Structure formats: structure tokens, C-alpha cells
Amino acid sequence: xxxxxxxxxxxxxxxxxxxxxxxxxxxxxxxxxxxxxxxxxxxxxxxxxxxxxxxxxxxxxxxxxxxxxxxxxxxxxxxxxxxxxxxxxxxxxxxxxxxxxxxxxxxxxxxxxxxxxxxxxxxxxxxxxxxxxxxxxxxxxxxxxxxxxxxxxxxxxxxxxxxxxxxxxxxxxxxxxxxxxxxxxxxxxxxxxxxxxxxxxxxxxxxxxxxxxxxxxxxxxx
Length: 222
Fold this sequence. Notes:
Blueprint: H1 9-16, H2 26-29, E1 36-42, H3 46-61, E2 77-85, H4 93-101, E3 109-116, E4 121-126, H5 132-147, E5 162-169, E6 174-183, E7 185-192, E8 197-205, H6 209-218
Antiparallel strand pairs: 1-2, 1-7, 3-4, 3-6, 4-5, 7-8
Helix pairs in contact: 4-5
């Protein structure tokens, strides 16, 4: 008889038995690097994402981008970075951030980016103009977060950009054909640092106070 025959009942019982949790190595147990990042951001629509992808192809062809490009599904503009955390996001931070975001009332607006380079570090796509509507929206969200008690988690300084590559770049500044989209919503995301993954933790469509009030009257607000 073959004692290693898979048909033997005892063999199935052994193989089906749950394995104990893997013990952390000494290095893992004392690894204090942050693994979770929480931030509010804007994501480009499909047309803008396609334009950004084509731009990267052109930059790589011209050798203006030598580093690894950001995956198209991770193109975004950070509005507020709420912190980096080792084990998990603090339990009270998510509901507080969500409650603050729900109070923001701003109409949809346009964003346009038309220059790259000119900085040493990640390759960034930035706007030439002041982007008044974007700056106003970012400040409105900032004020809401501070009012909710998250003053220590936000910074008023704001330099809008979309990162095209996180690798070092010192390419000279150049203008490009403008790439933009209509901002219709903002999103709260948990980034798994080092794993190139974004987990959506909340989403809020843009609407003015009057629009929100009318939606409540009409019974169309979720």
C-alpha cells in the first residue's frame, strides 16, 4: 500500500488542517517603517488619464523621463496628506475625516496642467496659472478638517501637481499641451506604501450648498 496516496482519509485530514499563523521574523517585528498613508485626493477622468498616458509615452521616447512611470490607475492630485502609520490608520481618524468631508459644499470646477520638470526629485506635472478654483477648494476642505479637530493632520501649504514618476528627475522645465478635467468628486484613500495599491475609503461628489439643499428637498441625495 502506498502510504502517501492522496486517497487516504488521514492524508486529507492532515492537508486540510489550518496552518498556524506565520511568526514574524526579528527584522519584521522591529520594522518601524510606515505602511499605511491616508490622504484626500482628486483623480483624473478617463480622457485626462489617456492624455497623461500618452504624455508619458512621449517623454520616455524623448528620454525626458528616465525613471519608472506611475501606473495610470494611480494618477492623482493630493489635496491633504493626513499621515503615515506603521500598523494601521488610527480608528478615530477615518470617521472624523469622513464627517469633515461631508460638510464641504463646492461646485464642480476645472483643473489644467501644462508644465513638467523644473524640480529635482520626482517628475511632476504642474499648472502654470494660480488655479484659483482648485486652491479655494483645497482651503475649504482644509477648514472643514480643522473644524473637525484635525488641525495637526493638515497643512495649509499647497503645491498642486500630478506625479508622473517617483524616481529622481532633474529635467528642465518645459510646457506641454494642456491636460485637464472637470473635478466632479474628491476621494479619501488609504495607500499601502510599497505595494502600489490605493484603497478607497470615501467618495464625495462636488455640489454647492444650494444644490445639496435642493437635492434634500427633491429626495435625490444619497
